[in-house]
Structure formats: C-alpha cells, structure tokens
Amino acid sequence: MLNRRVLFISYNGMLEPLGQTQVLPYLRELAKRGVKFTLLSFERDKAFMTDGQRACDELKGELAEQGIEWHWLRYHQRPSLPATAYDVWAGIRYASDLVRRNQIELVHARSHIPATIALALKRKFGIKMIFDVRGLMAEEYVDARHWPKGGLRYRITKTVERRIFAATDAVVTLTERIWPIIKEWDGLKGREVHHAVVPCCVDLSLFKFDEQQRARLRSELNLGDQLTLVYSGSLDGWYLTEEMADFFASVVRKRNDAHLLWLTMGSRERVRQLMSERGIGEKNFSIHSVEPREMPSYLAAGDVGISFIKRCFSKLASSPTKNAEYLACGLPIVINSGIGDSDALPAIVINDFNDRDFDAAWSAIEAAVNDPNVKMKSRSIAEKVFDLETVGAERYAHLYKSVFSA
Fold this sequence. Notes:
single chain; 2 domains; 7-stranded parallel sheet; 6-stranded parallel sheet; 13 strands
C-alpha cells in the first residue's frame, strides 16, 4: 500500500469533462492503493454560481468518502499572461498552506501551470515533485499559430519549463516517442530522473460494447443495417475535419448507405456545410451532442471509429483519448499517421489523404467489419494498452514507489 501524502494540482476544473474523465479516475484508483490525496484544481466561473457551488459541494463529499480531499480556486482566463501569473501566485499561496497542514510529501503537477506552482513548493519545502507532461505547451501554441516562436510568451514558457525539468524528481509523458527528444532538452539533459509513459487511459468498466445498448440506439437513430462510422470530439483546430469529411465521402461512393455519426458539441451548421459541399445527404449523417456518461452507448452503436489529427511536432507528445474509447467499445479505428504512439496500434492507418490511401482504408474497413471477432480484437487492444487500472494507475503507482524510495 502507498501510505503517502500527495498534493495533486490540476489546471483542469473538476466540473469540466477533462477533470471528470481524465483526472478523477486516476486519483480514485490510486486512492484505493493507499495514496492520501489532497487535490487542488482551478475551476471556471460556473463553479462559483449557485448550481455550480451545489455541484462542487456534492463532488467534494463524494471524493472525501473515497479518501480525496478537494480544494479549488478560480481559473482566470483574460488577459492571458497576467491572468495566468495571478493563478500561479494564488496557487502557490494556497498550496503552501495545504502542504503544511496535510504534511504533504510529494506534489504531482498535471501540466505546465501546476508544475510552475510545484516548482515553488519544492524550493520552499524541499518536497518531492512529479511533472506530468500532458503536452508540449509552448510548441502546441506555436503549432496552433497562437504564439510566434521566440515571442515573449514562448520564451517565458520555455524558461520556466527548463527550470521545472532541472528540479523535478520524475517526468510522466503520454508517449514513448517524445521521451528521447525531451530528455535531451535543457534542464533534463545529463540528469537521471524517474520516467513513466502513461497514455490517456479509459475506465473499461464504463467504456465497453453492450449489444442491448447498441440495438436500442441504432433503433432510435434509425440506422438499420447501415455501415456506421463514428467521430467523437471537437471540430477543426487540431482535428482535420475537412479530411475526415473527404474520407467519408469516399466511403459513401463505395457504399451508398454508409452513415457518419458526428458526436460533437461543435457547430451543427459546420457539419452540415462539410456534408453539403461533398454532396452527402442527410440520410448519410447525423449530429448529436452527447454527455460523457452517454458516450459509451453511442460508440457501441457504431461500426468504425475515425480520427484525423493535424501532424506537427507537438503532436508527437499526444495520446488521443478518443482512440482508447473507440477500441474499448469494440470499434476498429481509422487514424492518420504521425500522432504520438498511435502508429504502433493495430489500426487502419492513413499516411496521405488521397484516393489511393482512402481506397486502401476502405478495403481494410470491409475486412474488419466482416470479421466476427473484430469487437473482441479491438477490446483486447484497449485492455492491453489503455486500461485505466492495469496500465494507467499501475504505472503511476510504480512511479510513486520509485520516487519515494530514491
């Protein structure tokens, strides 16, 4: 049992999907292994309104029963640089009291802003520190064309990142592929630090194939025997929405009853525009805003999961959660190459978005959906690579033990 006191800092609010689905499941699993967590998160405005306060109080009580003590501060968004600086200052001040009161032994920082807070705590109290790198912050902003490379915010981020790397006791990355690169960066180069790869995992007790749910939803959605592709997530930005629409159009040319389920909170008009421009009628697609708790059922209604993501340097560090969710629900996946460790998955991988690659992918889809064991095979991949309990929590637990025993 890991009978240790850990402060976990997350810049994702616990009322947000990333907090509910990507932070809390890990903490709950590690708490079962004896870790005594104090959680500090940064919540958006809704957490401080009447309904949000009620939701926070309910969640706080639930987490307390699971051995997790939760505290939250307000997340400030604008103006960007001063707002972030204020959050760091407030976080250091508040977290310092938590370290003293709860006799914290280690601070686990999820992403760059929490790691900046953790760096100050390590220097102040001499406690151990884990930097959980959820993405390459400066490089992502440059790749997204939000920051110029070499600009003020880029330089500040890289300077702080270098200091974090130079001080941290351990580093977590989402992918194997990025580690040989960043361990040569300033701050880490020449240092021996503990390292673990923890991809974005999913709770396989929630994300699973359910034949009854599949039948019910397919009936409600009037899918009949249509070959159904599924895309879940945001539109545009990092996601190559145009290319996914092109690919689906190529599928429809080969099988005119194919259907694409767009599971997105994004603009419905944007989806309709994409489909209309490619001559795809409304019988071939539908758009649904799906709450996280409903997602497994909707995925189970599909036959194939699809996800195309912009190739760029920062995405070598990415582990798309949707891939894990698709596979856990028994779906074979169609993805593009060059994203994190995804090339190593048994998947239908597209290198170039052209007719030749689309045709090859279609042949692979036909073979997959006609394989009576395809759902079992997809599920098996998820169990091996993305299981929250046996992969994610187990690797974190091993890392904690290594850091504490050093």
